[in-house]
Task: inverse folding
């Protein structure tokens, strides 16, 4: 019944082997890691382990057949596969963490994805010892080392049981470079940092490629990148790494290839032939760490450049020779396309002369060039004068507009000053007015018409009362009419409403002299 056997080891071998030996065999073999712990990887065999072997009756000596032997894998790397039993509840989650390596120091620890029943995580690894941690719903199921061999896939399975969930391991030989399907795959390119071989004076040599237990391939199988001031300028494939030099194929970022070797102390490069590109371009000359700096660059179209280079292209001073033998001596290649002037040139026969160029185009003679330059200057002067005239016209227009605005403003001010001022009357009255020693307040919002508020304080014995009413008004020069809202009497000290009253609208005589507003003979002083 599932779950009753917490630890078991099954092997197709004829005899029982020590545990560390079983891990290295090809075939179907499983081990419960949760029961064994770190003993599984130390080479010691737990006392509680049992081994079941399957045997067949011995064959007669007359019919004895040779034992079949599996071919060795040619792969230089191994694989760790973590798979969760499909026969589990959902939702349910397992998690594998690769926390480090004891011998591959450039390994970058990573966290696998959360796996549900039936899902799988694959990690492609260089041979070595790695530490892993497996958690199930946050509970650590295993935390310890595993050994990865070249050409071997370590199969780690999370198993569900009736009484206990377990972690089992088996291994098998792999022969193909195609990784098995998985929900998440981590490859070599993402799991290892470059190994720094040397650094100094702005240079750094980095190894990328095959490795095993921290040891790199020095026999022409690895890749070395060369950085200058932090930027990789060339890489060496098929790198043969020796204490004093590295040889191989030097590949530029643009694909140019040169066979050669580099001195690890002086960074001096010795080519073994020309630099070639797939386009047909070739170079021969001086290098810096495998990067062309000056020499002869032959283009696919037959053009040749003899001079300085930058990023495998003509740069600076040099001689440009066309396919038909015509040549030009150039001070700055980047300026050739816009050159105006004369430069030394010649033909294939070797006769030296002077060639004239106007904005990058060759002209017949120096006199023709001078004519073009003179005409260009004349047209430039015309254009300069046109722009200057336009600038002056625009400035004059702005000044005229400003003057017109000033005149208009002055005229408006004069008109306003000359206009007779309106005599104050009730149509100009607005603001806050008081009477009765400030016990009565009359507020008008607007001139001629608007809204307002009336407030008056009165006394009855020791008690003070407050009357408030809102109104709307309309005025003529000597009259005012009102429409009132509800009036409210309050106790002034407590604010308690004592009475509400309605007052009919009406009109009254009105007079205003700019300071005193008189309504039906009662004077109100404007504040």
Result:
């Amino acid at each position: 019944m599932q779950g009753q056997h917490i630890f078991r080891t099954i092997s197709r071998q004829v005899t029982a082997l020590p545990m560390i030996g079983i891990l290295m065999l090809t075939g179907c073999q499983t081990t419960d890691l949760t029961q064994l712990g770190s003993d599984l990887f130390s080479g010691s065999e737990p006392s509680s382990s049992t081994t079941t072997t399957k045997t067949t009756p011995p064959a007669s000596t007359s019919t004895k057949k040779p034992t079949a032997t599996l071919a060795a894998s040619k792969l230089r790397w191994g694989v760790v596969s973590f798979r969760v039993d499909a026969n589990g509840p959902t939702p349910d989650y397992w998690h594998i963490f690769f926390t480090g390596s004891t011998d591959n120091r450039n390994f970058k620890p990573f966290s696998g994805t959360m796996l549900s029943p039936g899902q799988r995580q694959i990690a492609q690894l260089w041979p070595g010892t790695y530490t892993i941690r497996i958690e199930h719903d946050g509970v650590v199921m295993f935390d310890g080392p595993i050994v990865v061999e070249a050409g071997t896939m370590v199969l780690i399975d999370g198993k569900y049981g009736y009484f206990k969930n377990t972690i089992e391991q088996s291994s098998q030989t792999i022969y193909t470079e195609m990784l098995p399907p998985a929900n998440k795959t981590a490859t070599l390119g993402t799991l290892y940092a470059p190994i720094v071989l040397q650094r100094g004076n702005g240079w750094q040599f980095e190894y990328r490629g095959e490795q095993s237990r921290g040891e790199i391939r020095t026999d022409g199988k690895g890749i070395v990148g060369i950085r200058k001031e932090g930027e990789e300028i060339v890489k060496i494939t098929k790198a043969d790494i020796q204490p004093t030099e590295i040889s191989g194929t030097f590949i530029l970022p643009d694909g140019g290839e040169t066979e050669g070797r580099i001195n690890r102390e002086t960074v001096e490069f010795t080519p073994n032939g020309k630099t070639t590109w797939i386009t047909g371009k070739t170079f021969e000359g001086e290098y810096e760490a495998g990067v062309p700096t000056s020499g002869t660059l032959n283009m696919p179209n037959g053009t040749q450049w003899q001079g300085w280079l930058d990023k495998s292209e003509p740069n600076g001073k040099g001689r440009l020779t066309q396919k038909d033998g015509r040549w030009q001596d150039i001070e700055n290649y980047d300026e050739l396309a816009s050159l105006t002037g004369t430069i030394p040139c010649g033909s294939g026969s070797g006769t030296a002369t002077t060639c004239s160029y106007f904005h990058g185009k060759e002209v017949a003679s120096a006199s023709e060039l001078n004519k073009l330059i003179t005409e260009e200057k004349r047209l430039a002067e015309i254009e300069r004068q046109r722009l200057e005239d336009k600038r002056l016209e625009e400035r004059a227009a702005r000044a005229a507009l400003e003057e017109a605005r000033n005149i208009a403003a002055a005229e408006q001010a004069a008109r306003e000053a000359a206009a007779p001022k309106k005599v104050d009357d009730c149509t100009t009255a607005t603001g806050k007015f008081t009477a009765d020693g400030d016990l009565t307040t009359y507020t008008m919002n607007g001139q001629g018409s608007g809204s307002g508020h009336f407030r008056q304080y009165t006394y009855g014995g020791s008690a003070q009362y407050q009357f408030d009413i809102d109104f709307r008004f309309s005025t003529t020069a000597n009259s005012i009419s009102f429409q009132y809202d509800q009036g409210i009497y309050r106790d002034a000290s407590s604010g308690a409403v004592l009475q509400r009253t309605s007052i009919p609208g009406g009109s009254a005589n009105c007079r205003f002299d700019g300071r005193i507003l008189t309504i039906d003979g009662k004077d109100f002083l404007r504040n």
Q: What stands out?
A: The chain is about 15% helix and 45% strand.
